[in-house]
Amino acid sequence: MNKPDTRIQKKNQAAILDAGLLVFSQFGFRGSTLDQVADEAGLSKPNLLYYFRSKEAIYTSLLAKLLENWLEPLRELDPQGDPVDELFAYAKRKLDMSQHFPRESRLFANEIIQGAPRIGDVLHGELRELVDEIAVVINGWVADGRIKDVDPYHLIFSIWALTQHYADFDVQVRAILGEVDPFDGAEKHLDAMLRGLLTP
After folding, report:
1. CATH architecture label of 62-198
2. pLDDT at 7 over 90
3. Binning pLDDT at 50, 70 and 90, where does residue 200 land?
């Protein structure tokens, strides 16, 4: 039976994961080194390797946690709720993630750009199954005349594009808007766009 981690071990593991998130989201998996992660975590490389045996182990651990958080907003969509409100609420949750977890979004984007070598199974499995389930719900709303006729998959892709853009292209967005916080107007725009697209 394994002994539970001590407070210091938990603190060091959290520091390594936080440092890994910062480094990987900036440089990608290939462009990052264990030395960079160790320096960012304030630990020696041997100390880091005590907790995680490789760069890939840190990266995989981050992706596993990220995917769990990434799927949750879609799971919260209520088939019994008002369709337009539910879809906007989902988009708002995704926008909130871009605002408060931009490094996680960029880490995910980097993995996808590389061809998803470490999360391909999840994309083809758990994510696809969940999106298929939501597509059935959206098609049911369309059939009942509760929303306009839309392709459920492209609607979900559009929500991802309209929300994750603010994290993945943060530098570009802020270069154009200057001192204006992009999220101040993003939610209002998202609301107007989705309601215009979906309301019968």
Report:
1. Orthogonal Bundle (1.10)
2. no
3. very high
Query: What per-residue confidence (pLDDT) applies to 198?
Result: 97
Report pTM: 0.86
Beta carbons within 8 Å of 65's beta carbon, 6+ residues apart? 17
Q: φ and ψ at 22, to 5 degrees? A: -65, -45
Q: CA 196 → CA 31, 93, 199, distances in Å?
A: 42, 19, 6
Domain boundaries, the chain: 1-53, 62-198
pLDDT of amino acid 2: 57
Sign of the CA dihedral 19, 23, 28, 31? negative
Dist. CA 60–CA 73, nearest whole Å: 21
137-155: pLDDT as tens digits: 999 999 999 999 999 999 9
3-state secondary structure of 169: coil
Interatomic CA distance for residues 55 and 102, integer angstroms: 21
Architecture, CATH, for domain 1-53: Orthogonal Bundle (1.10)
